[in-house]
Amino acid sequence: MGRRIRHHQYRLSQRTIGFLVAGIGLTGILIASLITAQPGRNTAITADASQIADGRSLYVTYCASCHGLNLEGQPNWQRPLPNGMMPAPPHDATGHTWHHPDTFLFQITKYGGQSVAPPGYISGMPAFGNQLTDRQIWAILAYIKSTWPPEIREAQESINRQSP
Question: Which PANTHER family does the entry link to (predicted)?
Fold first, then answer.
């Protein structure tokens, strides 16, 4: 009989160790995410209604002529134009804007498409750094992101978390 009790205690002890290891692992992940978080980083995801409204107005003024009033992009946006440039892509859920982290979207808006283009690629995306403040760029991005369905916003936020 004493043997069964010890065996039962061993199983309970093994289970307890498993829970402890899992708890330590989860604690490590939490600590790592807190250490790598950038609390001072301004991202569009933390936008409020006022920032989104400002962003919509700025989008209409600076972006809609190429990317469409409804964020639909130019027709056949995945095929090069005769001059070799790509048409402006949509910023709605059908495009690839959400495939990029906020920092990339900010950079391409502020410094232009050529700033992130691979060698030999000619981007038609102009730089807006001389026309828009950083706050205005973040507002535009907040507006764009506010139009995405929840699952797209979640996927893009996951990309943000993986981005350096």
Answer: BLL4482 PROTEIN, BLL4482 PROTEIN-RELATED
Taking the domain 44-162, which CATH number applies?
1.10.760.10
pTM of the model: 0.71
DSSP one-letter string for the chain: -HHHHHHHHHHHHHHHHHHHHHHHHHHHHHHHHHHH--TT---GGG--HHHHHHHHHHHHHHTHHHH-TTS--STTTTS--TTSPPPPPP-STTSSGGGS-HHHHHHHHHH-GGGTPPTT--------TTTS-HHHHHHHHHHHHHTS-HHHHHHHHHHHHH--
35-65 pLDDT, tens per residue?
333 433 444 556 799 999 999 999 999 999 9
Q: Parse the chain into domains and list their residue ranges.
A: 1-37, 44-162
The 8 Å CB, 24+ separation contacts for 82-86 are 83/122, 84/122, 85/122, 85/123, 85/124, 86/123, 86/124
pLDDT in tens, 7-20: 445 454 555 554 44
In 3D space, the residue among 56, 82, 79 whose CA is nearest the CA of residue 69 turns out to be 56
